[in-house]
Design goal:
The chain is of the alpha+beta class. 25% of the residues lie in helices and 24% in strands. It has 17 helices and 41 strands.
Amino acid sequence: MKIKLLLFLVVTALSLKAQDNTMYKYLNLASSPFTVDNNYLSKHDIVYLSPTQLEAEGFPMGNGNMGGMIWNNDNGIELQINKNDLWTSLSADEGGTSILKHAARLKIDFGTPVFSWIHLNNFEGRLSLKNGEATYKASTAYTKTNIKTWLARGKNVWVVECENIPNASVLGESLMATISLERLGSRAFSGWYGGGFPKNTAVGIGKTQSLLNGRDMVIEEKGEGLHFAVVCRVIKGSNLPTLVNSHRTEQKTSHNKFTVLISVVSDRENNQPVAAAQQLLDEAEKTGIRQLNEEKNDWYKNFWSNSFVKLGNDYLENIYYLRRYLMAAGSQGEFPVAFNGGLWRWNRDVMNWVTPHHWNTQQQYWGLAAQNDCQLMLPYLNTYFKMIPYGEALAKERKAPNDALLITEAHCFSGEQVYKDRSDMKNNFTPAAQISALFWDYYAFTGDQTFLKNKAYPFMKKSANFYLDKLQWDADKKEYFLLSSLYESADIDHAKNTISDRNCIEQLFKNCIKSASLLHVDKEKIAKWKHVLAHLWKRSFQQLESSGEVISPAEEYYTTTRYSSWAWASGGSIAFPSNLIGIDDKDSQLGKAVINLVKYRKEANAHYPVPEVAARMGLGNETLEYLINGVKIHQMYPQGLMHNVTGYPDNIYNLNSIHDLLDGRYTIRSQAFFQCGMEPISNYGTTMNEMMLQSNEDKIRVFPAIPSAWDTTKIAFTLLARGAFVVSSERDNQAQVVQIGIKSLKGNHCRIQNPWSDSEKITVLQAGNGKSIKFKIDPGNVISFTTQPDVEYMIRSVVRKTPTSKTVYSGMPNPTVKHLGNRILGKLSGLNDAIK
């Protein structure tokens, strides 16, 4: 199968424009009850006190479009260079689906054991989330070594600054360092653990060609449906580069201080990728390394200012900020982040799963709007918007109207619905509705009506039309029913009235009604959607062992206590991600059923949003338990990355695990095939948002799911709420809300659940001038008032004393590793295995 890239909209000069929509303005809220020092994030530096022993322990780097992992070896560093748009199709021998290929590998050999534990006097590796930089500092009897690496903003240039000062009494005055650029091992190993890859070692190598252009080392790939160039330039290289072979070039330098620049350009960005990549390096040199670094630092300063959380658990808070960093580092290119490793793969083209699956892909985009990172959602939204013609074609194939679309669970980002006929996926109708929910969220959080009109509503309407066509009428019951399947768990063609479709239809139709009403269009459609919602099949319930009543996965087939794995995922989806019930419903039959399911198990699954569901139902203690257990299960890597599977094949991540790859000819240990995944860390980051702020019940709630363990700890947040409100609040160490600050971006009506007792008087003031704002208390003790665009407001309890000065949250650079049970962030000094 060949990916038909030309069917996409023409993309030109993307290397310079990929990040136009990811500019952040510095957010300084006058209404916030606290301030955050610019050094706060340094407390969440990830610190290694010993060099990496495995590539999997490397630091993840990226500027949103280009990135990769960097790690130590005895004599220097290696980094794998990846890029967001290097998607291509696999050969039939490799499975015939799509994969994100790597670009190249860079190695710097200082000619002496600078990072060998045998020779080290001291060592520190540090990943700064605050500045998007990785640094290494080491000294041996031979040398003192300092390395700083980072990526430029808005242009695909990776910078590696090196200093290696020899001990003259041992080595003399200078050393010879070797910088090599290579593209080897581009074979795909999808499903390697089951032997599911071609045994012919020539399959997948591509058509790599090494070139020299003056002082530049160039790798150009023109095979496997790809055309891209990687260019490497050594500033202060004492010798000209040489060709080693068609897949490798190298250059030597005797300078003790030198800088390496790497650029990558694909033909999706420029039809002359070699020239374009060299131009990027020319421009970088002309601008200057110092200025590029300052521009990058300014971007990060603005980025981090746009949201904030201060949690009651420092380790979890570190994971939260790592997730936000990873999405900034990976989701600013043309396509969504690859769920199975993102840009942070160290094993060339080895991925356990290749073709994108929507359930996994959407997980990475949950919670981005709430943390005020709507810009980072655009690669996802734009990709699926461009997929509309393919979804329409599949809908027609399934005998749906012309104005309908269907997206299958597995597909290529270029549009092909590759698993449309796979037995356990062909009747899964939910992905388009799930995508629609994120289109709606982008509007709901930003208030961007142009986006709603031109992109969100057209996609949502077509998705709703498919369901309108597939729903059937039961004349006896006077209700609509549906034949479909429940994710991958059903081993039959279809089940009747699955819970996943029920939730998707209700959420989708309600959002379509809101959209059409706002846009003053489709009155007839509104009437039809309302009629369906009024006559949709009723949810049923069943007993789940001793846990009590839960929502049934389907009306037929799942009629006993067979509660499958995907039913487990769907059982709480009415609360999240469907947003149909919340804390107000906790005492209803539906609410109790969801809570029973949440309490059924204690360990988190990489693919199931149970922690988010627990938070949505206000279960603070259970939410914290899920978070801690989840991190203990999934965070296999010391820099905080997590693996993306629970259960089979967990043994992949065991250093002692041995697999038969070549039909008994030999076996291999797993370590070369380790892979991180973005699903669990995204689940946990989203959950932390939901603990601090919720806006899913047509109102805002502050601190809705805080565990009792945090009641004596000061916590705070600045996040984004539906209705386009930036919300900032603080809770003191007696579990009392100090103040709520609101910035109204669009001038919408504001409704906030009163966090104080019914008897306490409150006041609403305009920030800046202290003017009293009229408000009323709606039923349910909800504070309600009118706002103006770009105006800030403060909500306070009159009876509680307002602090005379704002809390200042500051931080010092993290000095060491952090611990959470059996997991650590960072590496201890001495020998220790990260993955056990």
